[in-house]
Write a structure and sequence with these properties.
By secondary structure, the chain is α+β, with helices and mostly antiparallel strands. The protein contains 16 helices and 19 strands. Strands 1, 6, 10, 11, 15, 16 and 19 form a 7-stranded mixed beta sheet that branches. A hairpin with a 4-residue loop joins β10 and β11.
Length: about 650
């Protein structure tokens, strides 16, 4: 049964399986369809900004903010109303929106206007219709390309003049599917925007006076003196704007300055093949931009590492341990007793192997408790996502799930910390519990405050409001902290972990260790194999976080996560055995850092990935490396906890299998 469930999850994850999460809305013909605008994003700055920060056309009465959840605020989403008038199944031809003053033109030695700066930073618009994001359609003389991520660009930089031009006309193409049970109604299944830059020469209405830079006049009707075919009211047959019209001889693009007329077309098309429940599939697969074969190759690469590592453990550990058990458990001869040759190898440290760590037992217990909390949060989040419960149509759901699961797993952190700290014979249990309740969350909140200040200084929508900060503090102090103390209470009520051998009162002297058992070597080798097992999926996750691509192959991620945990456990156990064989019993911190070094490799890889982002602003450096350092620290704690618990189980097993005099 379990194998069937795993196979089903894998297949569904590969196809972008999800539960829609919201009820479909059926539109009647002529019914108003709302077009909403979201934050503008850029790969160059990584700082999203509010749509109306630029002098775009605004709706009557000003834009109205949508009711957003906590996850949307934390993701920087700012969904607002727009002035675009769209009605179900009603085509529109070169509809005029408004006249906007974009500011002064580009000149040497003069600071460019807001629109030019946004275009040069490669900002993209992200629009929404009926809760699905806009795909971007780009056309040239020979090809038409549709991209289902990152929205569409605000404008472009001409290759010859290097000047900025704004996209002041859009073709809004919407596909619908008729409802089987209600033939007179239809549901929206696809939303595509094709932007154009058209220099409209126009004469505004008589009440139009000059507007200052950044001010947008209300909706107006202007007479276009050089209309293209779709904008010419004298044409006998109405036509939608096409590429050939925009780039016909004598036509010029619209510079991102001065007074600009914004127009749009609305094109409705029926799609009987695409159903409402499947409308997100092409977004999640990004139109097969990343074939499933890539993820399968990633899985095979990870499995090869696991198989090789398991073979090493089978060849080294199992064979050596069987020989050690046979030697340690047989009766010694009189000659061996006389020469005191009975004990050698890892059995020599049986009286010291479970001695508490020499450096800060409290810190190790806190790190393991925090790592266990992050591990439970991660596995549950990936599991729920793979089963389809975190729908992409419910924006912010993934971030909210991570946050709430982390808060609820506070009891796990308190329990693990208290059990380990009591085993280490620690006395400052209040300090240990407080450290796990306020340590890592305090670091996260401190980094978040710094990032928020940076975002505020740049005018980014990533800056969360004060009310969201208060909600986070309530989750931390009102739910997470009590749960940590609750778990710690039950942990301290339990007996300390029992070990199969007694610990002596006098520590044994540790002989000199070979170079390959040094801490730097174990950090290098211990982290590279787990990192090698997951770096392909890591690339796609980083692309999702930093370049606004979709990642929804959580079934693959669940398998890779399992492989990562197994690899960390195996490599740590292998190094632990070599360390004990060398009569070095300081394995507690070594096992934690050996497995945790995977986080160090992830942070180093973030420098390699950063080169793809074309970012050069100081705020971008702070934002990117601040959050990547925090994520790497979390992975360090999580994999370190896996290493400690794996070695603890291994050591209890082998020392419980031999006879101690």
């Amino acid at each position: 049964m379990r194998s069937l469930l795993a196979a089903a999850l894998l297949v569904q994850g590969a196809q972008g399986f999800y539960l829609p999460g919201v009820n479909p809305y059926s539109f009647s013909e002529g019914e108003a369809v709302k077009l909403k605008v979201n934050k503008m994003t850029s790969q160059k700055t990584l700082l999203p900004v509010d749509y109306y920060r630029l002098p775009f056309c605004q709706p009557d009465g000003g834009p109205k903010m949508d009711h957003e959840n906590l996850g949307e605020f934390l993701a920087g989403d700012r969904i607002e109303s727009s002035p675009y008038r769209i009605n179900m199944k009603v085509d529109m031809y070169c509809e005029q929106l408004c006249i906007s003053n974009l500011g002064r033109g580009e000149q040497k030695g003069v600071s460019p206007n807001k629109m030019v700066r946004a275009i040069r930073k490669n900002y993209h618009n992200n629009w929404i219709v009926d809760n699905i994001p806009a795909a971007s359609k780009v056309e040239d003389d020979t090809t038409v390309t549709t991209r289902y991520w990152q929205g569409f660009p605000v404008g472009f930089i001409a290759k010859d003049t290097k000047r900025a031009y704004v996209h002041n006309h859009v073709n809004i193409e919407i596909q619908y599917h008729s409802v089987e049970t209600e033939p007179e109604k239809a549901r929206i299944v696809r939303f595509t925007v094709e932007p154009f830059s058209i220099k409209h020469d126009f004469e505004a209405s008589a009440d139009d006076d000059d507007a200052e830079e950044g001010m947008v006049k209300g909706f107006k009707v202007a007479d276009i003196t050089n209309p293209i075919e779709s904008c010419n009211p004298g044409m006998s047959a109405k036509q939608h704007t096409r590429y050939e019209m925009v780039y016909a001889r004598g036509r010029e693009p619209q510079p991102a300055s001065g007074r600009v007329l914004f127009t749009y077309d609305v094109i409705w098309t029926e799609n009987p093949e695409l159903h409402w429940a499947s409308r997100w599939d092409i977004y999640l697969s990004m139109d097969n931009a990343i074939p499933a074969k890539v993820h399968w190759l990633s899985i095979l690469n990870s499995l090869v590492i696991v198989v090789v590592l398991s073979a090493m453990i089978g060849a080294i550990l199992v064979r050596n341990l069987r020989r050690d058990f046979g030697r340690y458990n047989r009766l010694a001869t009189d000659e061996e007793k006389a020469e005191d040759l009975e004990e050698f190898g890892w059995k020599l440290v049986h009286a010291d192997v479970f001695r508490p760590p020499s450096f800060s037992p409290l810190l190790l217990a806190v790190c393991c408790g925090t790592g266990a909390q992050l591990f439970c949060m991660s596995i549950l989040t990936v599991l729920f996502s793979a089963m389809g419960f975190l729908s992409p149509s419910n924006r912010g759901a993934l971030i909210m799930a991570q946050l709430l699961l982390y808060v609820l797993m506070g009891s796990v952190a308190g329990y693990v910390t208290s059990r380990l700290y009591k085993t280490f014979k620690g006395k400052s249990w209040q300090k240990a519990t407080a450290a796990v309740a306020f340590g890592f969350p305090g670091i996260c909140f401190g980094v978040f405050i710094i990032m928020n200040i940076v975002a505020l200084s740049q005018g980014s929508s990533d800056a969360v409001p004060v009310t969201t900060m208060i909600v986070l503090l309530v989750l931390w102090f009102g739910i997470s902290t009590p749960l940590v103390f609750f778990g710690a209470y039950f942990g301290y009520k339990q007996e300390a972990i029992e070990f199969p051998v007694n610990t002596s009162s006098i520590p044994r002297q540790i002989p000199d260790q070979p170079w390959f058992m040094s801490v730097p070597f174990s950090l290098i080798v211990g982290g590279i194999l787990p990192f090698g097992a997951c770096f392909v999926e890591l690339y796609f996750i980083l692309a999702s976080v930093w370049t606004d691509q979709y990642y929804y192959v959580f079934a693959f991620l669940l398998l890779v996560f399992g492989i990562l945990v197994i690899t960390c456990a195996e490599i740590t156990v292998l190094f632990n055995y070599f360390q004990l064989t060398g009569e070095n019993y300081h394995w507690w911190w070594r096992s934690f850092t050996t497995a945790g070094s995977t986080g160090l490799y992830v942070f180093l890889y973030s420098f390699v990935y950063f080169k793809q982002l074309e970012a050069n602003a100081f705020a971008t450096y702070v934002l990117y490396f601040g959050y990547m350092a925090l994520a790497s620290l979390g992975l360090f704690l999580m994999t370190g906890c896996v290493g400690v618990l794996s070695c603890l189980v291994f050591n209890k097993t082998i020392f419980g299998s031999i006879k101690i005099d």
